[in-house]
Amino acid sequence: VELSCIIKSTVTPDPRIEWKKIQNGETSYVFFDNKMQGDFATRAEILSRTSLVIKNTTRMDTATYRCEVAAPSDTKTIDEINIQLTVQ
């Protein structure tokens, strides 16, 4: 599964990108501090700096995934998008 977080334009040279998983009211990190976290460390990767690829998805991966972008040099310093993933 590939989840994309498209950044249209930014003047910040290296915006901070984080991915979080929200499931049953609990939020956990997927990609934080430039590395995969938890069980995603062995089965997920970041492509082109913004797309999250999860390998061997199972129903346990059904959740809302949030991509957060922090660009301190931009007018809009932070933005996010939520993507609902349903694995059947």
TrEMBL record:
SUPFAM superfamilies: Immunoglobulin. One of its GO terms (molecular function) is protein homodimerization activity. GO terms for biological process: cell migration. GO terms for cellular component: cell-cell contact zone; plasma membrane; protein complex involved in cell adhesion. Pfam families: V-set. InterPro entries: Ig-like_dom, Ig-like_dom_sf, Ig-like_fold, Ig_V-set, JAM-C. Residues 1-79 form the Ig-like domain. This is JAM3 protein.
